[in-house]
Amino acid sequence: MSLRFASQTLRSNSLLKKNSILLATRSYSSGEKTLKQRFAELIPEKVDQIKQLKKDYGSTVIGELTLDQAYGGMRGIKGLVWEGSVLDPVEGIRFRGRTIPDIQKELPKAEGGSEPLPEALFWLLLTGEVPTESQVKTLSAELAARSQLPKHVEELIDRSPSHLHPMAQFSIAVTALESESQFAKAYASGVSKKDYWNYTYEDSIELLAKLPNIAARIYQNVFKDGKVPSINKDLDYGANLANLLGYGSNQEFVELIRLYLTIHSDHEGGNVSAHTTHLVGSALSSPFLSLAAGLNGLAGPLHGRANQEVLEWLFKLKDDVKGDFSKESIEKYLWDTLNAGRVVPGYGHAVLRKTDPRYTAQREFALKHLPDFDLFKLVSTIYEVAPEVLSKHGKTKNPWPNVDSHSGVLLQYYGLTEESFYTVLFGVSRAFGVLPQLIIDRAVGAPIERPKSFSTEKYIELVKGLSNK
Ligand code: CMX
After folding, report:
1. Does 204 lie in the same domain as 319?
2. Tell me, what CATH number does 406's domain have?
3. Which H/E stretch holds residue 277?
4. What's the CA gap between 202 and 199, in Å, rounded?
5. Mean pLDDT, the chain, as a whole number?
6. Which of 13-27, 219-233, 262-276 comes out lowest in average pLDDT?
7. For range 233-242, the mean pLDDT
8. Which of 250, 288, 293, 415 satisfies CB 3.0 to 4.6 Å to 280 for a cystine?
């Protein structure tokens, strides 16, 4: 290690210590545990639980594997561990055992608000526990306090050409935050494995804290006048993000952002963005590099970018039907899409086999706040027509809408009309889901991921050998 790097490392480690001491003092004075303290308490329990489970059942067969699954995107293969959420094909997502309506009811809210605070969900995903209001306030304040971007990251975003997709800018900016990684510095200085989680936690909070400034800077640069308002240290995460984007004066929009960030966060471990973040993290790449990798996956049209595609598809539909929004003309448009060999964006899912409860939560928000909005009515009519058309078409295993089918329409209503930005908001939310798992991974000593692959020739040899038995 160079002398310069070694002294930087020592400096940042002592800063980190100071930070932890400050946090500890703050929490003792309020009498409640901080998130970090509570998580630290829970680690031995989790480690023991896993140790015991492996000791008792380590050689139990938990599934079968067919050749179709190897060639079919590994659907249904159980081989990942993900603590924050489990996805049931019919019922949808549960965050630490709780459905979306449960978390809407149970998680702390902002004063006067009715949607859950995403900071509270982060706490729940990491610990399995619902935080108190004051614990969430402490976390919100910490995130606001750590939100400022390093100059070089601001410059990188400012230098990005406006035709570079916002998701590419987002990924570049998150990657460039690697300069701030306490984990990378601690690893280079030879810190013990037992402490990995500590530095992963610090990086994750630092990263989460900085995402609103990154997202807003991209938005203001590409679509507005490039000026980004300042973070308000007294506001929660969603309110700050809404402010930075320029829509904070509308309380309904602020509520929407809180709901949006909460429900887009986690969808168990096998989806592309979650799995990628976890996989890259398993090589002990920092949370910055790991999340950036996950964001690159989220940017794909079959995954997060579908929310942008939905809007583009809806606008084309509006052009095509020339004011005739009858079920018949929408049905024709759906068939035209399918017959052109394209997917209907916002419909279908690799795991779900029913309407996505994240779709339902957004539909309920729309029914409450914007029941007469023409695009919402259009989305509702498509919901009446598309499942039957997709079923008749006969390819997709799930003809029901997913989360992306609804999110853009809500943002359109409040004036955030630039659909190529939508996946960035999804990405900010996804960080709330994948970073807790990254911290848990390091706390329980999860190994580098390395499944086995075969060539087609080797699979032929394998199946022929097996079928001869
Ligand atoms: N429209 C038309 N065809 C569809 C379809 C849709 N909405 N959904 C699936 N299909 C097709 C698939 O393309 C596949 O066709 P081929 O056999 O020709 O390859 C066939 O139906 C079987 O697919 P499946 O097993 O039902 O679905 P997959 O698990 O392979 O894919 C998904 C899942 C989400 C990629 C797919 O449903 C899709 O492309 N949907 C549209 C894009 C979308 O909304 N993505 C967002 C998902 C949520 C998220 O991650 O954000």
Report:
1. no
2. 1.10.230.10
3. helix 272-282
4. 5
5. 94
6. 13-27
7. 98
8. 293
Question: Which residue of 77, 339, 342, 349 sits with most ligand 1 atoms within 8 Å of its CB, as the best mutation to test the pocket?
Answer: 349
Number of domains in the chain: 2
Residue nearest to atom 3 of ligand 1 (CA): 343
**CA-to-CA dists, residue 105 to 100, 111, 136, 258, angstroms:** 9, 14, 16, 14
6 within domain boundaries? no
Torsion sign over Cα 203, 274, 33, 108: positive
- Among 456, 32, 438, which Cα is nearest to 200's? 438
For the record, the structure tokens of 193 come out as 């494995």
CATH classification at residue 247: 1.10.580.10
One domain, residues 397 and 291: no
321 and 175 inside one domain:
no
Grouping H, G, I as helix, E, B as strand and the rest as coil, residue 251 is helix
Query: Distance between CA atoms of 225 and 375, rounded to whole angstroms?
Result: 27
Mutate to test the pocket of ligand 1, among 337, 343, 359 (most ligand atoms within 8 A of CB): 343
Domain that residue 175 falls in: 34-52+69-304+418-468
Same domain, 77 and 47: yes
Distance CA 173, CA 184 (A): 17
Query: Which pLDDT value is given to residue 31?
Result: 82
Least-confidence region, from 29-43, 160-174, 229-243 = 29-43
Q: What is the pLDDT of residue 10?
A: 42
Q: In which residue are the tokens 């003809």 written?
A: 399
404 catalytic, yes or no?
Answer: yes
